[in-house]
Amino acid sequence: MLLPRQTRLVLFLLSNLFFIPITFSLVEEQEQFTEELLLKPLPDRKVLSHFHFQSRAPPTASYGHHHRLFPKAIYQLVHKYRIREMELSFTQGRWNYERWGGFDPISSNNAKPPGVELWAVFDVPEHQVDAYWKNLTHTLSGLFCASINFLESSTTYAAPEWGFQPFTGSLRYGTLPREAVCTENLTPWLKLLPCRDKAGLSALLDRPSIYKGFYHSQQLHLISAEFKSGELDSGIILEQTLTVVLQPGAKRTGLAYFQPSWSMSSIFGRQITGKCVLAKSSNVFLQIDRDAVSELKDMWKEMSVNSDKMSKSLWSNPYFELSRAPDRIKEASSINSDSASILYEFFIQKCSKSESFDLGLTWKSSFVWSCPKAPLHATRFLMGSGNERGSIAISLRTTELNRRLMDADISEETCKLRVDIFQMVPWYVKVYYHTLLVFVDEKPQALTDVIERMHVSPSEDKVSPGLMELALKLPCGLNSAALTVEFSKGFLHIDEYPPDANQGFDIPSAVISFPRFNTRLHFPKDDSERSPVLSYTEVLLVPLTTPDFSMPYNVITITCTVFALYFGSLLNVLRRRVGEEERILKEKAANKKTGWISILLSKLFAKLRGRPSESPKSPASSSSLVSLKLLLKVVLVASVAVGWQIEFLELCGFERIDGEKFLDLPIEKVDMAALVSAGSEL
Amino acid sequence: MSGIESINARRRPIVRLGVFLISHSLIVSVICCIAAILALLLLPVLAKSTYVSENALMPGSANTMLSNQEVSEADRLVKDVNALSLESVDAGINIAKLIARYMADLGAEVCYHKFRRQQNQFNPLHFFLSTDPVVVQRNISCSSFGVNTVGVIRAPRGDGKEAIVLVTPYNSSRIDAAEASSLGIGYSIFSLLSQVTWLAKDIIWLAADSRFGVYAPVASWLKDYHTPLFSGLGQVNAGVCHESNDLLKLKDAMVSDTNISKIFTRAGTMAAALVVKVVDRHNEADEDTLSIFAEASNGQMPNLDLINIVNYLAVHRQGLRVKVEKFWSLLDSKFLNFVGETVELLGKVAKSLNPNWRFGMPVAEYVEGTATLASSLFNQALGVPTGPHGAFRDYQVDAITLEISPKGSLKSMGQRIDFLMRGGRLVEAVVWSVNNLLEKFHQSFFLYLLTSPSKFVSVGIYMIAFALLIAPLPIVAASLCSDANRRDSSLSKEGSSQPHASADEPNPTLKSWRWLHAAKSVFVIHFWSSLVTLLPHFISKMPSGTSASSLLIWLSLCILSLFLLYTILGSPFSHITTSRPQEWAILKSVTVSAAFIGLCLMSVINFATAEIGALLIVPMCLIACPLKLDLQDWSFRALIRAASNLTLVLIAFPPATFYLLKGGIEGSDSVSVGNFWNWLETLWAWNSATYLYIGMVHLPCWVLCLNILLHPR
């Protein structure tokens, strides 16, 4: 993209003029970029906005290595690491499965655990997968300004067999729950878009407003068929999505369930000024949930509005009103339910550049509905206390959807609900897989009755995390189910503790999927692939025993003290002449009359040395006198010492010079004879 | 002589020091004991000012956001609750429903937590373990259920790994204005926190139904939070009680309100917990006061940082007067006042010598500090939590109770709103500060005593007194043992000329094993004491009633079993021969060693208990000497020794100690015979290690000292 703007424009015009007729027949061979934005009011007065950008590169074999739209970094990444499929997500906040739904494609594909999640499938022999993965983490880390390189260590990633995605052997999965997500991760992500955030839908991405939200997940999904041999080569598809849950209107209104009205400019603080000119299509969708639609239809029926009026009033009715007329209205059908969610489609192409596109939704009356939920709601929590043991519990609870579904199926005796659980546990949480207990409706069950398939690879200390993949078959009419598995907490080496070790250690989210239930993507086309319903559980925080990290300092201090004591006493012993000292002591004792303090001291000293006291007893009456004399002597000596500093030297003939700072003795005044005699005296 | 000298010369200095100390054990023990008591008395002077150790806390760095809107909403809740309590006598479930509705309106996740009154049962085998939830009492009446209301706010941008807990206890059977306003404070913060965006940790508000005491609801909620039962045990019990009116009402409430979750709502690992309690004390009316309670079971304390931030925010931001518990009776103590004056005088002298020496403190401050310190030490030693925060400490969660008492009446609206605003802002600021915390509390002290809300004595200083107290024990034991051996050897040297003496001791090599007999008798006493410790469990199972009778039964059983053991295994007096006049000395030596080991072990479990216990045991052990000897001697010194022996033994007898302390603290008229039994019952009901200490260290030591006193030679 180093070309000057004008040449680019010219090139673009040229391509429009000349290549469109040619490429019309070869749609597959052209690079494509599409952008979409889905807006959806949520039941708890929030708005979900989901940006979806798709870039498609034709296969290298027919198209070559040079691309106009497709980001070069990603193309090289795919080729260097031979990636078949990859997904990277940066998430802040938690997806609320209860309130925001769990049975639509967005919650299945775009609700991610907090922090970074990365999985990739490589098209290389199995023994090379780890090496490719490690290199990939480093590349991504550089590309997205994140510490994805921590996923390089074999203790942080795992190779799921079938519980996560059906790619045996070549799939690697890792998460960093503590990674903070910020604009520095968004900027490189935007750089992959052909228009960046300068034009098109991505111009809406005002940083303060999108990071103010309740959930923020930025993803990059890559599917490549470059290396598939023998299959139809469809090139590389790069999907970039950004899912944000925002609250329009900061102030809480008095009525708890009155939906706030909003517009794009009120939630993002910006408006769309036109499509990205490089995009093939640029659409905005507004989705009204199935439950909401059925609720609305009920109300319409009550008001006995005839059907042809209804279709007209779909976007402007007594309950809500859109600020613009939609270009198309779709009723997306979903599995076995009488009503469908409504999708309003707006084409950005149609809006002129002078007038900006600002979609708004005004609610006219209060309105309550709930989002479709996954068959079972999963929560995970820790049990037990203390620093030794604990257990992980996953509790599954039925939701209204399941109840509704199962009411239909309850006649069938063999109705089973299949639930897959994928759980990765770091090695320092040592899970005892044999303690796995399953309770269905508060009754303990034999594992063979409920577990259809199970794959466990126990953790290896400091090498690999533990991995548990379970396929449960639960009875359809269940109310609740729970799984518990016990663990003990390991000890880490001091250099294995992360920064802020006292916070505790994270156990990454478990993945709960319902393979028999599928959700369908509404865009870009209706025939897109179905994906299984998937939900993530909470990240858990395990407090482990942490050492006092100031300990090394204490150890250094005490070691130094011990060394000092040792060397001091050693030197003392080496330079001491015991016999001589004793002789001197004896002489002193013989010559001197000592005070009672010194007698006591010498007695004590002698006791300590294990010898009888040798000092002669002096009469007690004289002792106080003696000590007084001693004190006088000491005082005298001290005063003389102070005086000697200046006065004595001045007496000797020194002179103060330089502002009385120095004493100087003129050389002519030095009496050499006196000095010599003094020296000999000393 | 020269040979001994050379041996002495060859010994290393450390050994010589040891020998020196042992040979002067009397002086050493006197000096150590006096120094220990001095060190204890000087503790208030040595106390340091508290400081916030963890930088991440940043207390008061943000302006509180609690506004009039939240407070007036909270006031509406208070009025509604008051109206409900006036309406019906037993408004329990209605209040829970009301709170749940208010919580749900804020968009919080709400659930009810139903719990049963749990009788604290002494379970000797599971002493240090938490009580086993499997123990189910079948014959529980349906009225013994309480209902907690739990609301959870999810932090908007947080990852949900951690949570902060707010607890507001209220008595659902008769709620008063003070408890209603504690709910008000809880609600005002909750409604503020449901709107803010800065939360990193989830907030759990537990409106605890304290009709069975403030501790039980919190403890049972925590138990269900941490160790839920998945098998249908709870269902079975609930099924029995379908007729219960309350429960039906509860069921109705659960069914009717769709916003209220039917399952137990959880958040992540708890980072800290605050128990907010409002107490209406009408008499002290000049300022709003805040009392902080922190002692949990077995003398465990929350991290000092939590107290620091609360104290800092209360004093410097909200202008509350902060107090911690103290012994009021000690404030008038003449002795303490005298010590305080001495300290002040010393401080003045030191200051006049060198103005930089900041030693000493005013008398009033000293006495107050000592009263607080004594209360802190006593509460820790008791091992019984001083509030619902104690339940959190069992799960390694730092928690304190904030007891706020308003200056004015809570009846008038203006004052109430002002009070709610103040209390709410304090709690909000604390929550904000804890929310800032990245790691759990670990920076500051866990082992400390408070001398005032802003001054503390850390473990490094207060253990000096204990170390000084127990230091003479091994020295005295060694000196007694060596003395006895030396006298023995000198006796046998004298006796070698006399043929019958040598016949009395056929095997001289066994001489060094003489302590075995003493050790056996000490072991017998300890065995007896552990039996006696278990006895109350069986006595409490007996249907016959009063505590006084139980105490008498226990005492008589104790004496009976002691004599029974003596007859079976032999008493300390059974083995006395005339040739061994120093038998009692050996016995004393072993007793002293046993006491030393017991105290050291206890200091690990509950330091405060060990410290107070050492104050009682150590002088008694050190001074113990057969009365017969003293009476034979008939000198002034011997008489004094006998008298002090008798008084010490009298004082250290556990019931006597208890009655003396109780009489001293609360006044003599409140003492009755059964009190001691009740006290013991609370100790074991709270799983306090102090009970074990009294039973297995203090009591045997006392009995052994009594044995020494009554020793025939």
Automatic annotation (TrEMBL), chain A:
TM spans (from-to): 553-574
Signal peptide extent: 1-25
Q: Which Pfam families match?
A: Gpi16
Could you tell me the Gene Ontology terms of the biological process aspect for this record? Answer: attachment of GPI anchor to protein
GO cellular-component term (any): GPI-anchor transamidase complex
PANTHER family, per the entry: GPI TRANSAMIDASE COMPONENT PIG-T, GPI TRANSAMIDASE COMPONENT PIG-T-RELATED
Q: What is this protein called?
A: GPI transamidase component PIG-T
Organism placement in taxonomy: Eukaryota, Viridiplantae, Streptophyta, Embryophyta, Tracheophyta
UniProtKB/TrEMBL annotation, chain B:
Q: Which residues cross the membrane?
A: 21-47, 459-481, 521-539, 551-573, 585-606, 612-631, 643-661, 690-710
GO CC term (a single one): GPI-anchor transamidase complex
Q: Keywords on this record? A: Membrane, Transmembrane, Transmembrane helix
Transmembrane in keyword set: yes
Give a GO biological-process term. Answer: attachment of GPI anchor to protein
Q: Which InterPro entries match?
A: Gaa1 (IPR007246)
Domain of life, per lineage = Eukaryota
The protein's name in its UniProt record: GPI transamidase component Gaa1
Which PANTHER family does the entry mention?
GLYCOSYLPHOSPHATIDYLINOSITOL ANCHOR ATTACHMENT 1 PROTEIN
